[in-house]
Design a protein that fits this description.
Elements lengths: L1 H71 L3 H49 L10 E5 L4 H7 L4 H10 L2 E3 L6 E5 L3 H17 L4 H30 L6 H10 L3 E2 L2 E2 H18 L4 H9 L15 H11 L4 H8 L10 H14 L7 H18 L4 E7 L4 E6 L6 H18 L7 E5 L10
Parallel strand pairs: 7-8
Antiparallel strand pairs: 1-3, 2-3, 4-5, 6-7
Helix pairs in contact: 2-8, 4-6, 5-6, 6-7, 8-9, 8-12, 9-11, 9-12, 10-11, 11-12
């Protein structure tokens, strides 16, 4: 019991100590509570003061807005919109300056790159600077042959001129006859016919007509060969026979004294070089460049721009729409549908602007002679019409069944009057209308 009493006293002392500690803590809590209450009261007073200040600031702000609106005659919403507009303009201006800078840098880079590509293409291609002339020379074996070619009272040379439409100039130069005319195909027929007649030795009007007709047939075959050789040279596939024939005809055509077929081959090569430099299909560019002037082969028969005519022909012959557009648009008469059309325009300019490639005056002269023939053919009953003597004479052969002598004389006056109205020319132009009736029988 004594030990238990001692233990109980110890526990009682411990409890008393804890009670004292708790009482002390309670006193501390009361002090903290009082302090917290004081802080809450202070905080409430500060909040009230801040609220009062905020209300005062709002009143001052509203009063300031009213005064500003009254002074500036602009409402708050209008001022806000003005600020937004100013910021928007500044942002757009900055953006525009940045875009302009990028565009200028891009254009400069593209210009340098394009110059390099074009210069490279021009350096890789070389061509002879040979201009075709509007006359051909035939050498005679002897002076005696001149008399045989002229014939009795000039009938042989007249027959040659009527059959070929060319002018045969027999001058003082020994053993030489010059064939003059602007149509290269007819001039080639005349040259071949005369050379063949000289070799044959039989020179008379009937033989002349037969020889000219035979040479015309042979030249048609040559045209086909020229066209086929170009196709084989460039290894083109699926080319329509009509286009092959037109390419062959271009060998005998000139544009500003530049051979059109040679020009087309140059444009094809330049187009392929430029396209390959740009990473495009070189075969498509080559085909478009080669065929871009095929309309010139039929401009004498079909009216209209040769670019549009060529595009219609290519479309009719089943060419790809990209190539059709490149042909039709190479003079910018229709919109570009692909980059290949632009490449063809560039290549066409390169080929045409080579030093010595073209001469303006010769083409103007040839166009004047063509105009003379066109005026003559615009009348009914015309069989053939030839411009001779550098445009100083137009020789017209009429259909003898549909015209009598009176109508022939009237036709000559009408043609002369129309030439005076539609053309300007120095000196005078002789209109020579020929009506010839032939009766042919054979003795068997």
């Amino acid at each position: 019991m004594k030990r238990e009493k001692i233990e109980l006293d110890r526990i009682q002392a411990k409890l008393n100590s804890k009670y004292e500690s708790i009482e002390k803590k309670e006193l501390d809590l009361d002090a903290l509570k009082l302090e917290l209450q004081q802080k809450e009261r202070n905080h409430s007073r500060m909040e009230d003061a801040l609220r009062a200040q905020e209300n005062k600031l709002k009143a001052m702000y509203n009063d300031l807005i009213v005064k500003l609106e009254r002074i500036s005659t602009v409402t708050k919403d209008e001022a806000k919109q003005m600020i937004f507009d100013i910021l928007d303009a500044e942002v757009r201006l900055s953006n525009q300056k940045w875009v302009q800078k990028v565009e200028e840098e891009t254009k400069q880079l593209a210009k340098e790159k394009s110059i390099q590509i074009i210069a490279t293409a021009m350096q890789r291609y070389t061509a002879d600077q040979v201009a075709m002339h509007s006359s051909s020379i035939v050498h005679l074996p002897s002076e005696e042959m001149k008399g045989r070619i002229i014939g009795k009272e000039g009938r042989n040379i007249k027959a040659l001129e009527m059959a070929t439409g060319m002018e045969f100039v027999i001058g003082e130069a020994p053993e030489i006859i010059t064939i003059s005319g602007f149509n290269p195909i007819r001039r080639e027929i005349a040259r071949r016919s005369l050379e063949r007649l000289i070799l044959d030795g039989r020179i008379n009007p009937t033989r002349i007509e037969e020889t000219v007709a035979q040479c015309e047939k042979e030249l048609e075959e040559m045209i086909e060969e020229y066209g086929k050789s170009v196709i084989l040279e460039f290894n083109l596939q699926g080319v329509h026979p009509e286009i092959v024939t037109m390419l062959g005809k271009l060998h005998f055509r000139t544009s500003y004294s530049q051979n059109v077929l040679v020009h087309c081959k140059e444009v094809g090569l330049f187009s392929r070089m430029i396209a390959e430099e740009l990473g495009l299909d070189g075969a498509t560019a080559l085909r478009a460049g080669l065929l871009h002037d095929i309309g010139k082969a039929v401009t004498a028969e079909v009216e209209g721009p040769h670019a549009k005519i060529g595009g219609d022909i290519a479309k009719r012959c089943g060419e790809d729409p990209i190539i059709v557009n490149a042909i039709a648009a190479h003079h910018e008469e229709v919109p570009f549908a692909s980059v290949y059309a632009i490449i063809v325009v560039i290549a066409d300019t390169i080929s045409a602007s080579r030093p010595g490639a073209r001469r303006e005056t010769l083409t103007a002269y040839i166009k004047r002679l063509e105009k003379l023939e066109d005026i003559a053919h615009s009348f009914d009953g015309i069989k053939k019409a030839y411009a001779l003597q550098a445009g100083r004479e137009v020789r017209i052969i009429v259909e003898e069944e549909s015209m009598n002598d009176e109508k022939t004389a009237m036709l000559a006056r009408e043609i002369a009057r129309k030439i005076e109205e539609e053309m300007s020319f120095p000196g005078q132009i002789k209109v020579n209308v020929i009506r010839e009736k032939r009766a042919i029988e054979y003795a068997r």
